[in-house]
Predict the 3D structure of the following.
Amino acid sequence: MGLFDNLKDVVHKTADEASENVRAKANETGIGRAVVNMVDSRRDSWLAKWPAGEPAGDFVLEGNTSRKAYIYYPDALSALPDFQRVLFDVVPGDVVLHSKYSGRTLDTAEDGGCIALAYGTQIVGACWGYRDVAMRLVAKGYRVRIAAEKRGMFNRDIPDMYVLGPDRY
């Protein structure tokens, strides 16, 4: 079982858990049912396209351009010390993230240029930029990683993370 297989399971589980309450409320209306059915079919078609097998190799996006990483699931990052640099895995494909802190839901398929980020085997958040290059590399079979740094705490529970990517790609 490769890294992509583990992330596939995590993505599926995270999407199902995050949308459970939203789905229940949406099903109360006719248009809500239609939206839930559309999201389910898109998720199923995306899972069918997931890269199979081991990656062709690692490709690390790293540089001096700093972009905010929006953290939706902070548990995996809580033990990082300030100014610790890490590598996030770019999640290949689109996911729906839901923050229990802000109540905001982010769909990487609909919020243009956004990529989901994982640390270890857990999806932690998203950032804007690098989507085109990252998805082209994923389609070629690479495991895409991007450098990031913790710069303190956004609030008591959520770390303030920044992606450190290249100026050009």
The CA atoms of residues 61 and 154 lie 24 Å apart.
